[in-house]
Design brief:
The chain is built from nine helices and 17 strands. By secondary structure, it is of the alpha/beta class. The chain has two domains: 117 residues, Rossmann fold (3-Layer(aba) Sandwich); 164 residues, Dihydrodipicolinate Reductase, domain 2.
């Protein structure tokens, strides 16, 4: 049996809890180091999850046992930290987005190719039982020819619950860049690459006020649109309407419907890993529940699939090429919202192989 792959988690904020909870339980990986610019925060997370060492970013990258860096820093630091990891000869898993602009993202991929290391990128929710079951059902012809998609995400915004939400309203975030990748990656997985987009964006307020936590009442600046409505056209012929809003007192998350020539399929929340599907065929008076099959371990599944791919010499599924395409879509959406025009999307990717329904993150591969 091969030895577990050594991992460093870089960035020990909120999202690191979900990753560390899972990565410390997967037998094919071993978390060796927690790193953060706040050394005490890194130490605290290392202690909470029995990780043997903690410290700064460079210490993590200098660790001889670390083969892969899990980059969970804030969006503005994604490209810088990932590039440093690549320069150190480490594979990289990036939280989304891959980078804030296409030049930085392309440079990242070029650097990785030159160093002979891999880059993977969130969201890995696309590997969960919900979406993988949807992919298998569509491939079986159950809904006929897939034609269109409708997605909806709206609510009052993360200042209502997050204790430090400022970074979510800064450049590189907002509802489009923070949550859009879940929905755009879902449609990329089901439809393939897009070829053009059009959008409208709005920012009703220049500031917001933190509602929850010890800093409640603190006002902060809003730098990005908090309402974005999108039309997307896909190279294989499908079209989609997508809404991303943090301007609604009514919360509605996880709405994804795929309409085919024979039926409509309601896909589980793309921000999660599980959930059953619902199917409504032409002539049906109600929905039929279709149980999903597959793994639902949570964040870190993409890291594990990447590790197994590295060891086996096979492609990993949550690839940098898909993330680059999703980033280009978001950049084009921003451009369209400013210019009031359809904008082309030039990048493409090869659809990854589906994940086997019996894929088990808790059983070590040999």
């Amino acid at each position: 049996m091969s030895e577990p792959v050594g991992i460093a988690v870089i960035g020990c904020g909120n999202i690191s809890n979900q990753y560390l909870k899972n990565l410390t339980r997967f037998p094919d990986v071993k978390v060796l180091f927690c790193a953060d610019i706040d050394i005490e925060r890194a130490k605290s997370q290392a202690s909470a999850y029995d990780v043997p060492e903690s410290g700064g970013v460079q210490q993590a990258l200098d660790h001889p046992g670390v083969e892969l860096a899990v980059n969970l820093t804030i969006p503005v630091a994604h490209a810088e930290v990932a590039t440093a990891a690549i320069d150190a000869g480490k594979h990289v898993w990036n939280e989304k987005p891959l980078a804030l602009d296409m030049d930085a993202a392309r440079a990242l991929l070029i650097a990785a190719k030159e160093k002979g290391v891999r880059v993977g990128c969130a969201p890995d929710t696309v590997l969960g039982a919900g979406l993988q079951s949807a992919r298998r059902l569509i491939a079986s012809g159950t809904i006929g020819t897939p034609l269109t998609a409708l997605t909806l995400l709206q609510g009052p915004g993360p200042q209502a619950w997050h204790p430090d939400p400022e970074f979510l309203f800064a450049v590189g975030a907002g509802p489009l860049f923070d949550l859009g990748p879940y929905y755009l990656s879902t449609l990329a997985t089901l439809f393939g690459p897009a070829n053009r987009v059009a959008a409208v964006g709005r920012k009703p307020s220049a500031t917001r006020v933190i509602v929850a936590g010890p800093r409640a009442g603190t006002e902060f600046a809003v730098d990005v649109p908090t309402y974005v409505s999108v039309l997307a056209e896909y190279a294989s012929g499908q079209a989609a309407s997508l809404l991303f809003s943090w301007d609604s007192p009514l919360s509605r998350y996880g709405f994804v419907e795929i309409t085919g020539s024979e039926a409509t399929l309601a896909v589980p929340d793309p921000n999660g890993f599980g959930g059953d599907l619902r199917l409504r065929r032409v002539g049906d008076q109600d929905w039929t529940v279709v149980p999903s099959r597959g793994a639902t371990a949570g964040r870190g599944m993409g890291v594990l699939d990447m590790v197994r791919g590295i060891r086996r010499g096979e492609p990993h599924r949550a690839s940098a090429e898909i993330a680059l395409h999703v980033l280009e879509m978001m950049v084009a959406i921003e451009r369209s919202a400013t210019a009031a025009s359809f904008e082309p999307v030039a990048s493409s990717f090869d659809a990854p192989e589906p994940l086997d329904a019996e894929w088990d993150p808790y059983v070590a591969w040999t």
